[in-house]
User: Fold 4-hydroxy-tetrahydrodipicolinate synthase from Actinomycetospora termitidis.
Amino acid sequence: MVDLAGLWVPLVTPFTARDEVDLVALRRLASSVLDDGAHGLVALGTTAEPTSLGAEERHAVVDVCAEVAAERGAGLIVAAGTNDTRTTLARHEALADVPGVTAALTVVPYYVRPTGAAVVAHLTAVADRSPVPVVVYNVPVRTGRGLGAAALLDLAAHPRIVGLKQAVGALDVDTLEVLASAPPGFAVLAGDDAFIAPTVLLGGRGAITASAHVATERFAALVTAASAGRTEAVREHAAALLPLVTALFAEPNPVVTKALLHATGRIPTPDVRMPLLPSSAEALTRALGALDRVDVRRVASEVPLTS
Ligand SMILES: O=C(O)C1=N[C@H](C(=O)O)C[C@H](O)C1
Assistant:
């Protein structure tokens, strides 16, 4: 049984002023979110700007995340999907050499626009050969192709496909069908930060949440409360966090999050690589205000302990 329950933070890639990956800052960030209640780390998620990293940089990022996860006994998901099957297979096979990987995150191939049947064939071929379990990443706004309930439930029946990061911008009927009908060992994770509460209340196992770089304790408490069905607490946490989530996603992820982490002294620069542009001053001001209004101390007793 793969343990995907809880809050997973897809880490940004901090850059130095010389545009190098700052592995020291990455290590610090990874440790801090685990200290603050995250169950695990996601390396090379969309938030990490993976398409702007070279092969050596990608390896270095994964190595740091693997080290920190191992030190803390935390989970590690590594995003290994891309838009061609051969490269996707090679990236999954390479995970055999990374210790402690909980699962690979495998995105629906973007840009190419294969048929639904072809996307299922791609994900099945990858899962057949992957040395680690696979979590499917369904994010049509980024990929141009979305998977509906029938395809997702087909994939959920594969013994190596253990979960779904669902990011369809809504709690739609397909998501409800998957939550209702997926096998017990299959974990649905909220992939849109604004939809953690309803997804987990309806049976989702947790969330992969870029916003949780900040106010991590409160996001962890939200997931914990929703998993336990404590609806009053869920409403309170979700209401407190929504302005922060909308502020962080006012511009393309992760530009505002990086600006906020820099402004609060947690990464050395707010820099993103082109084609992203840095956050506007207005978006940062709004995010700082939203973060200021989240009371993280309200939740101390609800944060699950990591080892
Ligand atoms: O990197 C991720 O994983 C996430 N990416 C999403 C996106 O940028 O679309 C947002 C989500 O919080 C996690």
Summary: The first helix runs from residue 23 to 35.
